Amino acid sequence: MDHSAHIASRRRSGGRRKAGELQDAQAVPRDAPVAGRLNPLSDEALAQIHAASLEILDRVGISDAPPIVVNAITARGGRLSDDGRLVFPEHLVIDALAGFRRRFRLFGRSKGHELDLTGAKVHAGSGGASPHIVDLADGSYRAATLSDLYDAARLVDTLEHVRFFSRSMIAGDMPTAHALDINTAFASLAGTSKHVMVSASNPAHVYDIAQMCYAVAGSETAFRAEPFLSLNINHAVPPLRFDADACEVMAAAVRSGIPVMVNTFGQMGASSPVTIAGCLAQTNAETLAGMVFAWTLDPEARAVYGARPMVTDLRSGGMAGGGGEQAVLTAAATQLARFYDLPNSTIAGATDSKLADAQSGFEKALSVTLAAQAGANLITQAAGTQAGLMATSLEAYVIDNDMLGAILRSAFPIEVNNATLAVDVIAQTVRGEGHYLGHADTFARMKTDFVYPAHADRQAPEAWLSSGAPNINNSARRTVSDTLARHFPRHLSTDIEKDLRARFDIRLPAERMTAS
After folding, report:
1. Is 429 strand, coil or helix?
2. Whether pTM exceeds 0.90
3. Quick check: is 115 in a domain?
4. From 397's CA, which of 134, 367, 437, 493 has a CA 20 to 30 Å away?
5. What residues contact residue 516 under an 8 Å CB cut-off, 6+ apart?
6. Is residue 1 part of a domain?
7. Overall number of domains in the chain
8. What's the distance, Cα to Cα, between the start and end of the chain in Å?
9. In the beta sheet, which residues pair with residue 63?
């Protein structure tokens, strides 16, 4: 067969090798890309935003600071203004910036799930805390339950490019806030061995979650050394107010050795200025205030800078997570985190679409791509989230996993050296077969240099038609159904599960954790 016929044959078959070979290619473990080549802000602009944030903290301050924060900050030179706002002097923020813990890792409970937060290494995961789930059977919205959350964790456990599980739903069937916090942690840890992120509404709940983690790890010392669970904490209520309960939760987490996501959600044009620069300056000030507080409690705390400014649709007042403004705002906030060289997280993928459709695809791809190219360490809400964070779709998880594979691959730098320039290979090929499809280097790099989608269709049109004209949504729904029917991981041993059920009010039935 000549090379043109060979190429035509591969196009008709979708350009694929045998299924086993393709599966092997997908199974190769992949490191996190080192990105950070997208810089929406100039060096001068970064310096101006930094200076404005310091001025906001030093001149305006933050209101409603609870005693635990006031005591910690005033002990380091802060003060309360005449109108009761807690002021952070510039020297305190500069000292904290010099002292923050950097270059640390978060962990899963099995090899390969470490999250290295060094530099511009990028990891994408779930998130959302949505009250609804998109029902797999009929596409309707219904209130999410603890079983739904467990199913989401089990599904994410199998998705290669969704690297961590930030709880995606609020279990609406939990009777109390304590039951919600404890059972969310349990269901997440039972469903996946990847790093888990949850939240807590009360410091007493934090200590219970910590005891759960110590039991799973085998000891408190083991968990502190390799923490596999962290807390999302929204310590500020923009504009420039502290949330007293969240600050108490942060203190409890730091004391317990639980990593903290120091998150700030301002909405541009609503709870932060309408300009990108002003929104960044305020959001940065709010986030730094939380980081400084965590640092005063423990300079070795694993604190993750979580500036995540959002955009408001000024026609309705609602969130607009899918627009170009949101994408560039997220990238700029990430660049600011890299300016400080801080481990960081952000939100991207908060589509406004209610379904896993074309709108969902282009909105998620735009925002996640810019966040990844800007070098965000942790991209939450990158998979499964719909309707402006109001709903989770299991079908979307599977589709978004394909999307994330492509986006993360695009974030790797291009390798240029004698081997990749391939001058000798070119010389051999043009004097030989005239194409590279059968070359040993082509086959070897098929397994390392390419990411193959599991559900996006690459068949030629005639092959696609003859196979029943499949679409990505139907394929994803089948995968969800098959996975949830068979994947019941035992990430908690029988003894540990029995111990946790005896100590805590665990409301996920044991029979729900096995195949029927």
Report:
1. helix
2. yes
3. yes
4. 493
5. none
6. no
7. 1
8. 52
9. 241
